[in-house]
Amino acid sequence: MARICFTLRVDPSRIEEYKERHAAVWPDMLREIQASGRRNYSLFLGPDGLLVGYYETDSVAESDAYLASSQIAAKWEAYMQTLFDGLDVRADQGATTLTEVFNLERQLGGGSTQ
């Protein structure tokens, strides 16, 4: 399983609009995210527009390819595009992926206390 964390920047003047749109994500888009193999998906938004996302998937490549070919995802990304600061590609394709540098479970040996 891959754990993916990414960042984007929401235009600070459009934060409330971004929150409103994510309070009611299209049901078809929710199903597409799920069908892509992403789970435990969360977005966190700071007051300055810093957006941090996290999800888990069995295959990053397959999940990315599924959403890249989805007409529903393309429509959603076009709907959201103007809310991002300095982004000239689809948000799901222009996010900065972060490198995991610490994981408690791994350092504990998978959770085992032995």
Short description:
The chain is α+β, with helices and mostly antiparallel strands. The protein has six helices and four strands.
Can you characterise this structure?
This protein is of the alpha+beta class and 114 residues long. The chain has a single domain, classed as Alpha-Beta Plaits. 39% of the residues lie in helices and 22% in strands. It has six helices and four strands. It has helices spanning 15-23, 27-35, 60-68, 71-80, 91-94, 104-107, and strands at residues 2-9, 39-45, 50-57, 96-97. It has a four-stranded antiparallel sheet with strand order 2-3-1-4, with no helix packed on it. The radius of gyration is 15 Å and the shape is globular. It starts with a strand and ends in a 7-residue tail after the last helix. The model has no long low-confidence stretch (mean pLDDT 94).
